[in-house]
Amino acid sequence: MSPLLYTGYSNIYDAERMPWGETVEANGNDYIVRTDLGNQVLAWVSYGGSQAQNQSWCHGFSLGTHERWGYSVYSGRHVARVLADEYRRVNRFEAQPGDIIAWRTSNPNRDHPHTAILKRLVLLPNGWIDFTRSLMDSKNGPDPVQRDEPILTMVRVYGSMIMFYRKLR
């Protein structure tokens, strides 16, 4: 992902955005950023002064863009583009700690509503994922980061359609 050009307004897409509505104190701007392949995606940067946990969401945490560049990529086609450009999909038998877990939906416009970082994957004898014993680091919306959280926690919210992605080197 590219760094954010803070000094220029040419990449501001929209201003005064409140990603969680008025229920959470967090305002910011939407910016256009580029993937490593040069494709444009939409990302959000919070204004200073809001609590640290309200300055990013899951994609900013999982992809490392908030820590590195100060932004969170939007869900749907934006995070899908990042995953396609900068990661490769791996099956559950190849998944390793550090891979990205991406939840899927049946609606491509609202796809990948959540991502997390895989910490431990446990497969059952039949090859299915043991969601209770498999662990992740996750940040859901304005909530704080949860470490070593059972994947079942987000399966209850987003369903069990998940894919694993590994960063291209």
Write a structural description:
The chain is an alpha+beta fold. It is 16% helix and 30% strand. The chain has helices at 58-62, 65-69, 77-86, 152-158; strands spanning 12-17, 28-34, 40-46, 72-73, 87-90, 100-103, 115-120, 135-138, 146-150, 162-167. The strands form 2 sheets. The chain has a 6-stranded antiparallel sheet. It is globular, with a radius of gyration of 16 Å. The two termini are 13 Å apart.
SS-based class? alpha+beta
Assign an overall shape.
Answer: globular
Strand content: 25-35%
Provide a count of the helices: 4
Radius of gyration: 16 Å
Number of domains: 2
Task: List strands and helices in order, with pairings.
Layout: E1 12-17, E2 28-34, E3 40-46, H1 58-62, H2 65-69, E4 72-73, H3 77-86, E5 87-90, E6 100-103, E7 115-120, E8 135-138, E9 146-150, H4 152-158, E10 162-167
Antiparallel strand pairs: 1-2, 2-3, 3-4, 5-10, 6-7, 6-10, 7-8, 8-9
Keywords, please?
169 residues, 16% helix, 10 strands, globular, SH3 type barrels, four-stranded antiparallel β-sheet
Quick recap:
By secondary structure, the chain is of the alpha+beta class. It has helices at 58-62, 65-69, 77-86, 152-158; strands at residues 12-17, 28-34, 40-46, 72-73, 87-90, 100-103, 115-120, 135-138, 146-150, 162-167.
